[in-house]
């Protein structure tokens, strides 16, 4: 592993350095890297002992991680995140809010169905608010461009991710974008994927634990030099690392049940953003209204 000679000057520079070097890190340092990317506020505010406990490593490993990126130690790395936190006036991190929410909910006895509904609403509102913070605007714009530039969008999502993939394929059809849903019914995954070319886009939705089928599809798409757009919960997971563009989304978990509300919101925004962009390109303002009207009726 090659260490950096000088430390990044900002949290964003460190984030880019981690993404660029992730594959070269040891397994233990990769654990720390994932946490640093997902929980920058916690890195800024928590003690070294707490960070070690949450990442499942020894405190010395976090110090080693910081030094590998040019810092004198963990405290200097934390200061970088703390400065960014103070300048942005950010509230308590999403991970901390989720932990507090989970502790409160899990300790309650369910007395009525309405209580469960209220818990799911609260958890999903929290996830939707975090979606606005976590999705990079430039990355979102690039994702819309990838959809627009593709001859055909092949959409894949398995098990828990399937509803999001099915909605994406359906709604892309509704705005006149050629799309193919890879659902693997009858063991036909390879046949459904067969027509993919370098002019197409593979759009994959998958969350930890990542579906093997999704990983294999991405590997084949990369071999064909096809662009890949991934929607996932990590920027450094097997779904994200080989992708052309990644959109990160972190869902709510209520009473051990993970939701899909934030993912569905992201999917809707992607399709409608594409539809608006396509309408502007064709200079036919009435087209989008007709498409949206037709989609609403369906």
Please explain how this structure is put together.
This protein has helices spanning 11-21, 27-38, 40-45, 48-55, 59-68, 74-88, 94-106, 113-134, 137-149, 162-174, 189-193, 212-223, 261-282, 285-297; strands at residues 153-157, 179-182, 201-205, 227-232, 245-248, 253-254, 257-258. The strands form two sheets. It has a five-stranded parallel β-sheet, sandwiched between helices. The protein has a two-stranded antiparallel sheet with strand order 6-7. Strand 1, helix 10 (162-174) and strand 2 (179-182) form a beta-alpha-beta unit. The chain starts with 10 loop residues before the first helix and ends with a helix. It is built from 14 helices and seven strands. The chain has 298 residues and is α/β, with parallel strands linked by helices. Helix content is 59%, strand content 9%.
State the main characteristics:
298 residues, alpha/beta, 14 helices
In terms of topology, how is this protein built?
Elements: H1 11-21, H2 27-38, H3 40-45, H4 48-55, H5 59-68, H6 74-88, H7 94-106, H8 113-134, H9 137-149, E1 153-157, H10 162-174, E2 179-182, H11 189-193, E3 201-205, H12 212-223, E4 227-232, E5 245-248, E6 253-254, E7 257-258, H13 261-282, H14 285-297
Parallel strand pairs: 1-2, 1-3, 3-4, 4-5
Antiparallel strand pairs: 6-7
Quick synopsis:
Helix content is 59%, strand content 9%. With 298 residues, it is of the alpha/beta class.
């Amino acid at each position: 592993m090659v260490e950096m000679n000088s430390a990044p000057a900002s949290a964003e520079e460190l984030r880019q350095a981690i993404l660029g070097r992730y594959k070269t890190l040891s397994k233990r340092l990769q654990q720390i890297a994932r946490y640093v990317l997902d929980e920058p506020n916690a890195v800024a505010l928590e003690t070294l002992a707490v960070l070690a406990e949450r990442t499942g490593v020894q405190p010395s490993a976090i110090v080693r991680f910081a030094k590998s990126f040019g810092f004198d130690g963990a405290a200097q790395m934390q200061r970088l995140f703390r400065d960014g936190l103070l300048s942005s006036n950010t509230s308590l991190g999403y991970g901390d809010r989720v932990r507090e929410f989970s502790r409160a909910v899990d300790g309650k006895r369910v007395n009525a169905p309405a209580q469960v509904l209220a818990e799911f609403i609260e958890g999903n509102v929290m996830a939707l608010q975090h979606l606005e913070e976590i999705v990079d605007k430039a990355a979102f714009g690039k994702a819309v461009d990838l959809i627009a530039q593709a001859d055909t969008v092949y959409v894949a999502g398995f098990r828990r991710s399937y509803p999001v993939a099915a909605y994406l394929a359906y709604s892309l059809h509704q705005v006149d974008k050629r799309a193919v849903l890879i659902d693997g019914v009858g063991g036909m995954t390879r046949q459904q994927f067969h027509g993919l070319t370098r002019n197409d886009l593979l759009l994959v939705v998958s969350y930890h634990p990542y579906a093997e089928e999704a990983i294999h599809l991405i590997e084949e798409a990369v071999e064909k030099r096809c662009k890949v757009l991934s929607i996932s919960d990590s920027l450094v997971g097997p779904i994200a690392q080989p992708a052309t563009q990644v959109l990160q989304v972190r869902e709510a978990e209520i009473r051990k049940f993970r939701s899909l509300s934030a993912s569905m919101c992201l999917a809707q925004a992607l399709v409608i953003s594409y539809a608006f962009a396509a309408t502007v390109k064709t200079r036919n303002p009435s087209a989008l209204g007709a498409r949206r009207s037709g989609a609403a009726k369906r």
